[in-house]
Amino acid sequence: MARHKKMQSPDEDEPGLDISSLIDVCFLLLIYFIVTTTIVKKEQDLDMALPSVAPSETPPEISPFFIKLEENGYISIRSDGTPEQLVESDPDSRALPTLQPLLETYRDAAMASSQEPLVQIYVEAEARQQRVIDVLNSLAATGISKVTFTDLLDEE
Q: Is the pTM above the cut of 0.85?
């Protein structure tokens, strides 16, 4: 006696969707984006010694290097009783090419007198935060870690 196979009706035959290739493509894209992503240096990575709440009882041994950040992005400096001078006038420049050598010179002069360099930063109220981070990055690049923010502006 011959066995007859029961034929499936077209209603029971549902098409299937093979998603294994879709999963492979998703993993390849994930790996691609992980590998090509650049890590941006965060502000927490900067080795800065910010001041405590109470002011220090002992005056600094070296005159501080004063940096002023203006609302328009300009950066001015003053040190050792010299008049304030504008050093960075391009608010879109993130590298601060004029400020960097001046900071290195100040650091070298402080180290030559066996003192730690001290930088005071005055930031106007409407100045961009990115500009402050640019200055902090320049300070970190030169190895200056003793930084204080001030709200007092000595007019000379």
A: no
